[in-house]
Design brief:
single chain, alpha+beta, five-stranded mixed beta sheet, 33% strand, globular
Length: 98
């Protein structure tokens, strides 16, 4: 299934960026973080992924699968990177979505 990861590309200006990934329901959150790292060079250990469930955003722990959250085709997952020195530069140099 295809999912979208939404994150802020330019932290100072609030420009949103999306990444698309093709994953299975069995994919662990930790594996998804590694995929994200390969695109925007933000280390997996500082990434926080959130999914909206029942009208609230919930942090996705690394050891759970996407199937646990009942992620559907095309659903958006939000990436938050708490302040991390290299992350701002990495996000700014990430490839632009076309």
């Amino acid at each position: 299934m295809r999912i979208d990861i939404q994150y802020l590309r330019h932290f100072d200006h609030g420009v949103r960026q999306n990444l698309e990934f093709e994953v299975s329901e069995e994919c662990l959150v930790s594996e998804l973080k590694v995929m994200i790292h390969s695109h925007i060079k933000v280390p997996a250990n500082v990434q926080e992924l959130y999914v909206q469930r029942f009208g609230r955003f919930e942090v996705m722990p690394d050891d759970l699968s996407l199937g646990f959250y009942q992620i559907k085709e095309g659903q958006k997952i939000t990436l938050k990177v708490p302040f991390y020195g290299e992350s701002n530069d990495a996000a700014r140099t990430a490839p632009k979505n076309k």
